[in-house]
Amino acid sequence: MTENMDDHKNDEKDEARTPPHKGKGFNQWWRERTLPEKILTGFGFGLLGIGLLALLGWIVMLLWNWLMPDIFGLKQINYWQAWGLLILSTILFQGFGTNNSGSRSSSRNERKRKEQLRRYMQEDADTGD
Question: What is the spatial distance between Cα 79 and Cα 82, in angstroms, rounded to a whole number?
Fold first, then answer.
């Protein structure tokens, strides 16, 4: 009986020493939040995303204005022209609405091609003997 009580006391001590975030997954943490906390969290992440996007346009503008006029003799650009440049480069280098650049789909296609090549080579080796 006393061993059982001592074990219970040790469990309580362990729980007191364990930080509240240890051992909990994100889903458990999210379920414990109230609706206003969830709304504020979403609003905060939205503002953070908008701020990072604004910063990205500003960084492109600074880099262009620092490098391109000196290297290639091009004009300096403003903030919105930097955004246009970002959008244009995204369309040109990643494709517009295509799925060619997705690493998951391209690796899947590559695996399919390799498997087909292996089968073809195996069939060729089997018929050649």
Answer: 5
Helix axes 79-94, 35-72, angle to 10 degrees: 90
Specify the pLDDT at position 102. 53
Please answer whether residues 61 and 39 qualify as being in contact, where contact means their C-beta atoms are separated by less than 8 angstroms: no
> Which DSSP letter does residue 97 get?
S
Percent helix, percent strand, percent coil in the chain, to nearest 5 = 80, 0, 20
The answer to whether the beta carbons of residues 94 and 101 sit under 8 Å apart is yes
CA 33 to chain centre: 24
In terms of C-beta density within 10 A (0-12 exposed, 13-18 middle, 19 or more buried), how is residue 61 classed? buried
pTM: 0.52
